[in-house]
Hints:
Blueprint (H helix, E strand, L loop, with lengths): L2 E6 L7 H17 L2 E6 L5 H12 L5 H25 L4 E4 L1 H4 L1 E3 L8 E4 L2 H8 L3 E5 L2 E3 L5 E3 L5 H11 L4 E6 L20 E2 L1 H9 L7 H10 L3 E5 L7 E3 L1
Parallel strand pairs: 1-2, 1-9, 2-6, 3-6, 9-11, 10-12
Antiparallel strand pairs: 4-5, 7-8, 11-12
Helix pairs in contact: 1-3, 2-3, 6-8, 7-8
The chain binds adenosine-5'-diphosphate (ADP), aspartic acid and magnesium ion (MG).
Magnesium ion (MG) binds next to loops.
Amino acid sequence: MSLVVQKYGGSSLSSPQRIKEVTKRIIRAKKRWEKLVVVVSAMGKTTDKLLKLALQLNPNPPERELDMLLSSGEVISSALLSISLCSLGEKSIAFTGSQVGIITDTLHTKAHIQRIEVKRVSEELDRGKIVVMAGFQGVTPEDAITTLGRGGSDITAVAVAAALKADLCEIYTDVKGVYTADPSIIPEARKLKHISYEEMLELAGSGAKVIHSRAVEIASKYRIPLYICSSFSEEEGTRIG
Ligand code: ADP
Ligand code: ASP
Ligand code: MG
């Protein structure tokens, strides 16, 4: 049974047009893979805007409410993407982190995933549905919504891939792969075809936000192959692992 987890970052979902493009890409992938889980970030700069709103009302917002607020960005994009998939006749279902059962500790705004209950997602995959999941969020055993820290949708994607024993986790972003340096700052940076988990951890540790370092750690621990590429092009990306 082949299973892939695809993650689309905020830049890939910044407008209805972009969501339509991603929808088409997912439908193409569904022809290659028997089971498909899609993890999404909030649209464009939504998380920054939500944070700014909160700070206008309280310079020191309570973290429980801040997490409720910030998690809503990914809830919106997951629902919209599933709505878009259904409009093209695909069977899909969207879930929040709490609906999936992404159980975290209580460290609001930087929570750690403790376990993932895969039952509900597996049932929907068995029914042939594309499962769309809101990234970046979880829920405490006491039912408080948490977030995983900035860039945390990468962590959701790889943790879910590990829990479902996926064959591959694909990270779709706005660059064509992992470069020797940030290509938006160093134009002569070279794209890498393949890189080890250890080398990627080093790059991520020194600030390459193309993938969250915690996501690379989980991928390395559970031996999940990663593939980072652009959702704006068909060019080959970078394999990790
Ligand atoms: P997403 O919205 O898809 O999560 P991010 O903005 O978090 O995307 O990460 C992608 C960005 O990471 C790229 O636009 C790029 O500027 C930056 N980046 C930093 N270092 C690297 C690197 N070594 N290789 C590729 N991209 C990098
Ligand atoms: N939306 C969150 C952020 O901007 C999580 C993510 O994009 O991965 O940090
Ligand atoms: Mg990111």
